[in-house]
Amino acid sequence: MTRSPAGKICMVIGEGNSAQLEKAILKTKPKANYLELRLDYLKVSDLTVSNLRKWVRLGEVPVIATLRRKANGGEFAGTEAEQMEILKGAVEANVAFLDVEIETIENYLHGEFTLLKKSPTRLIASYHNFEETPASLESIYLRLLQVKPDVLKIATLARSFSDNLRLLELIERTRKQDLSIIAVAMGELGVYSRIVGPSRGALLTYGSMGKETAPGQPSVHDLKRVYALDEIDEETRFYGVIGYPVGHSLSPPIHNAAFRERGLNARYLPFPIQDLQDFSPYLKRLGGFSITIPHKVAILRYVDQLDSTVKMTGAANTLVKHGDDLWAYNTDVHGIRYALRKPLEEGIHQATLLGAGGAARSAAIVLKEANCQVTVLGRDPKKTRSFADEFGFECDSLCQAAKYRGDLLINATPLGMSPGIEQTPLLDENSIRYRYVFDMVYNPLETRLMRQSRGKAAAIGGIEMFVAQAAKQFELWTGLEPPRELMRKIVLEKLHASNRLAPQL
């Protein structure tokens, strides 16, 4: 007996044999509201009526049976006649839905789907385009309506962020006509449509068990736990991180947890944007953004006002709306101040700064404020000299790091960052002669440089800066006190999990 779904998350199961499929179905029970069984991943010999009945029974939620042909982006190599024969068995097994591509309905069935006339199984007529989102969605919409399905489905590849909005507009139009639709923009640019679609009236959105079965498909775990998809409504305010790539960003779990903790109807999403100009018209349509590589400097062309932190660093990592204006901030400076609060309170007289890039620039501002003597060490002599001269610091080569000492050593290079966890800017651990060592790398939690500092200096990890800069972003967006301890807890959980999964070197 299937229960009526209270939510809109459909877990897609695509396994290579029936035993793996059954195991996967049992794992999904507490997680999904619908199940889509990708029958085209299985051998034809596995697709018996008795097996199909068993899978429907095991699922305990409405099951969508899909047997996508290779010609339409699936794995089934048989003819349309063979496809329909197998789908007859799915109808006999009482699946809740059959997902059949419009090409099969038009070309083989001539637009008449008589198979379901005396069956409770409902028809999803689907259109897929793995190349683009066509300029005319209207013609596709009318084409699907022509075959009178129970549910229309349109899945197209997003080439521009605007493709998400066009599909969302189609969902809202269909809802007003009291019709059922599933519409998703595929690809990494299409995540917005997948998460927002159900709140605009889409029947469901698809999630994977972990391995995506379509480009850009999020996991069911993230849809439920990170984005709380079923609680999103038309009043939800959206924020996000703009950069490329952003697939493994820690920001969505951190900020979404913080929004929930403070009772805000808000969500934070990844925006994997390569073409910043293409996305720029939408910067004021959402609540605010984090900005990461490679857009921290280029984003300044699209804002109205610069905070003093941006004027000093020449880069932004946060966008905030104040009235009609879009302001740029750099909360990395705040994050460094917070991470170094103890040494700053005690007083820093002599510091060594490793690196001359963007991270080093934020650190240099904090050191300049502290009126301490600083030596910048870098690999590129010309770049390092120019950087040091700008702040009135001394400079030298990074390979000379062993000869320096002082109150504070800051590593503002990527050396030691995962996966290069055995790298360190100081090969000789005996050359660490400082009271404090601050490594701005936060993954892994304890870098090789921090390990080298044991018993010699008080080590400060990059997580302190990372959480502090994220907390400041939250404060700028909401005007509320950020839940710092919760945000730190989420970062630690995610980093511990990633370190457990990482291959050992």
Main pleated-sheet profile: 8 strands, parallel
Q: Output mean pLDDT.
A: 93
Enumerate the spans where pLDDT stays under 50 for 5 or more consecutive residues: 501-505
Strand content: 15-25%
If strands are numbered along the chain, what order do they take across the biggest sheet? Answer: 7-6-5-4-3-2-1-8
Structural class: alpha/beta
Count of DSSP H/I helices: 18
Task: Detail the topology: elements first, then pairings.
Layout: E1 9-13, H1 18-28, E2 34-38, H2 49-59, E3 63-66, H3 80-92, E4 97-101, H4 102-107, E5 122-129, H5 137-145, E6 151-157, H6 162-176, E7 180-186, H7 191-200, E8 205-208, H8 220-226, E9 237-243, H9 251-261, E10 266-272, H10 276-279, E11 288-291, E12 305-306, H11 308-313, E13 318-322, E14 325-329, H12 331-339, H13 341-346, E15 350-354, H14 358-369, E16 373-378, H15 381-391, E17 394-397, E18 406-411, E19 434-439, H16 448-452, E20 458-460, H17 462-478, H18 484-501
Parallel strand pairs: 1-2, 1-8, 2-3, 3-4, 4-5, 5-6, 6-7, 9-10, 9-11, 12-14, 15-16, 15-18, 16-17, 18-19, 19-20
Antiparallel strand pairs: 11-13, 13-14
Helix pairs in contact: 1-2, 6-7, 9-18, 12-14, 12-17, 17-18
